[in-house]
Amino acid sequence: MISIKLSLCCLVIICALGCNVVSGDDDDEVTLTKFGTNIGPTIKFFYCYSCGYKRVFQEYVTILEQKYPELQIYGQNYDPSGYNMYFAKFLGTAKIIVILLIITGINIAQWIGQPQPFWWEWSLNNKFYSCLMIFFVCNAIEGQLISSGAFEIHFNDVPVWSKLETGRVPQPPELFQIIDNHIQMLYPKHESLEMNFNNN
Questions:
Q1: CA distance 152 to 169
Q2: Domains held by the chain: number
Q3: What transmembrane ranges does the database entry give (predicted)?
Q4: What are the residues whose beta carbons fall under 8 Å from the beta carbon of 105, sequence distance 6 or more?
Q5: pLDDT tens for residues 127-173?
Q6: CATH of the domain at 98
Q7: 56, 179 contact by CB (below 8 A)
Q8: For the chain, what is the largest distance between any 2 Cα atoms, rounded to a whole number of angstroms?
């Protein structure tokens, strides 16, 4: 009995941590070299966290910081448009509340003067399995709600690549070419980012 309670408590903690993913506050920042008061150009990645694109972003960080040491790299979750994010947040909160009610054995039907439903009685009698089922089913629904498939790239706040439009993530050579072209427009006197941006 004690082990079941401990397992349920761990499940509640996992639910609480899982809300950070749904909230879209996952914000990674990798700030690279800065010289004096001048700061190099920035590149921002907006990716679908639930699609597993955070790993792709981290791989690009490793590649870009080697080739462009003065480039500032930022990354964060791409929030889906419409009401999907609000529904996902609501579902995440409701999931935790229901699991807590099941763990504490509270009979909601008594509050409103109604007989206890069969499914709620089953949940109270099978707390561990019902909590697991609620947790994984709600997580699957939340993942579908916030899944955008996005991998958007902005260079100095200018959109330069959109997976939502092209249907794919850029290959490293493609991204290098995009960055080089923008650098040539911004800093025509410099051949690459390996040179300082300090004013002479």
A1: 9
A2: 1
A3: 86-109
A4: 124, 127
A5: 899 999 999 999 888 888 878 889 999 999 999 999 999 999 999 99
A6: 3.40.30.10
A7: no
A8: 81
